[in-house]
């Protein structure tokens, strides 16, 4: 092996690792706030990527219609939940957020369908569409289950993953798609070629890590989210709307997922079911990071990406085996170091 | 616990089904699949629903079972009946290996860890040459008895359902035993169970192996039913599916696993065959509908369908009272010359910069009630945790009968005859009072898991339950014996904890705020009980805030304030001690 190949593999690993880092961060965030292990995170990735690619190639993505349909269900649930104290402002607010907004986005999507939308427009539309799906998803599926055990939430999460993946096939077909690069410039440093796309990946990952750190450390909403993560009941007693915390967590997770998808799809062809495996690698990073620490998760994600790049070069058959088995020594270390703390579970 | 009659009826119905005239053969195939899934789900019920250990990796164990018999019976021509024990052994051995790594993980690491090795093993199955890579292994010989070959789904049907019913019986038996109580206590945290001698990592590993062996059995049957194996049914999707079979059925109930398997298998089949008639278009519609129905089902019945169905049945008759004429042999006494049962010498505990217990020394003599009092945060409960081995002391020493026991684990302390109750009640709320109290006698029984599964533990079990019943009556809760512990008032739950501690046959009883939540009359009864125990030769060390209760009961009082001992003496001297009054009232007397 020469240095060029090694550097190339490291570079490839870091690019993939950065994506896993973003997904790992989202998983940690959602788990901490809502106790949901977000298996459909992968679907946010594919939805984001394929919506972007469809728009850019002039097709009408079905996700826009899904967002409107889910919004209507969410609106109906809101009305039903508030049926004893219905007043105009509440209805208007829910209608605006759940029906009017996705309807406008759908209308915009329809106007751009047929003509190849410019990159920034496709990006913005796909981010908004997936973000809405994420928020409505929490409202429809997880908010009614918020009081149940982690296990029940997990199984519901699996159900959502199945449904969304099936819908993905319906919307985008079985063919894979690629999207246009976000930045097309490129430069070389020594023997390495840096594409604008990979630079964007690094930049956005770093921006998100710093952004999340600032958000959780310094803002009211960020602190409210952390409080919800530590103690749901306590947070409610302190006046924090825990359902709002859940919606914010899902909003961030879906935006992060869609963004990762948009960043990946110019580099790799994505299929409707690619998200699951990508999401799982984010999981591996999140577990190594202990599901609590953002910086550790980011570092772990880079390690996962680099290990993946090297093993696909040396033992491509065993690539996935190696990546997932990477966890075993980590878990072993964790279990040896784990202090004997009491867990009160219900 | 469970009547045998319903199981017998169920077995007879299942045996009769193939003889129903006009039974479509396809239904038998479905029933075979239900049985295979039920076996895996049953293991998960024990692992996840009862033991609180969530595993996504069960499909991999099915794979171990299936591939073991596939390789041995095709490449080496070993008879399928001989590969059965080997399949179970391979699944079991891998469970030990993976279990040693994973079951010690806490909280959410565990499910995610199992997901990771589940995926890793799936890719391994699909890459290894001798397992046939992605194509798998075909032409596996059928099961046969003599010249009768089980070639069609109808003939292997009996093998599948005999396996399901026997496994269910064995699992139900295991849960209703000494080992089963230890397993059922796992979900509520390990401190209480360990205080009575349960080795929790070993109990967790045990359920892990049990679940893996059931999955291996399912895999063995699967290989001989399909007569071909490939990696697909052993992947992550399948692992997740087994888990939701268990949850949909009702994760805490053995028969919930069977019910869940029936619901999920039939639902998928119905959706696959009828949806295309209603909805035009691509073939993934059934996945979408299936996912949505799963979510709806969970929103309607988060506890699963089995308990929901059972709630329609008339209430079960009250359990029968154990025969209290049976007695357990007394706990083996360690011969000690010393009259001093417990000697705490300059014990110290620091949490970072906080000194919770600051060089505290005191002792407890035989036939004595000693009270440990002090304002909130004085370090009383921490002292209890140091004595019982829950926490290890930063410095100083603790001796029992003159022998140092520094930093011995809780399981060892209880063997010396020191048992305790907890400030925050630690009972298993969905177990009866009798079962909870019987955990206290854990070390005085000796039946292991195998004898429990085969019901060879009944003599031992009857003695344990008799002892538990005796202690429950002794503390005056005889009428509540068969109620769920969670349904009792908090004061009564504290008394149940005392009964559980008494089941150890202790020489020293440690009670952490036993009178909190009791009414006046109940407090007087408790005081009388404790005096009787002392007069019977036991010593008591108690933490209590009710001064009237302590002053009338204790022979000697030790007062702590901010982790430091400020006074010790008889109730009369403590009452007038200026330091004590200052600590409680904040002014000099």
Write a structural description.
The complex is a heterodimer of chains A (346) and B (589). With 346 residues, chain A is mainly α. Helices cover 74% and strands 2% of the residues of chain A. In chain A, strands 1-2 form a two-stranded antiparallel sheet. In chain A, a hairpin with a 2-residue loop joins β1 and β2. Chain A starts with a helix and ends in a 9-residue tail after the last helix. The C terminus of chain A is likely disordered. Chain B is α/β, with parallel strands linked by helices and 589 residues long. Chain B contains 23 helices and 14 strands. In chain B, strands 10-11-12-7-13-14 form a six-stranded mixed beta sheet, sandwiched between helices. A four-stranded antiparallel beta sheet of chain B has the order 6-5-8-9, with helices on one face. In chain B, α2 packs antiparallel against α9, α2 crosses α11 and α11 packs across α12. The N and C termini of chain B lie far apart (61 Å). Chains A and B meet through α6, α11, α13 and α14 of A and α5, α10 and α12 of B.
Rg of chain B, Å, rounded: 29 Å
Question: What's the count of strands of chain B?
Answer: 14
Shape type of chain A: globular
Counting DSSP H or I runs of 4 or more residues, the number of helices of chain B is 23
Strand order of the largest sheet of chain B: 10-11-12-7-13-14
Kindly report the oligomeric state of this protein: heterodimer
Name the strands of the widest sheet of chain A in spatial order.
Answer: 1-2
Quote the average pLDDT of chain A: 83
Q: Cα-atom Rg of chain A, whole angstroms?
A: 21 Å
The fraction of residues assigned to DSSP E strands of chain B is: 5-15%
Derived from helix and strand composition plus strand pairing, the structural class of chain A reads mainly alpha
The proportion of residues forming helix of chain A, as a percent range, comes to over 70%
Which chain pair shows the most residues in contact? A-B, 50 and 51 residues
**Helix/strand order of chain A:** HHHHHHEEHHHHHHHH
Label the structural class of chain B: alpha/beta
Major sheet size, sense and barrel closure of chain B: 6 strands, mixed
User: Which stretches of chain B are poorly predicted, pLDDT < 50 over at least 5 residues?
Assistant: none
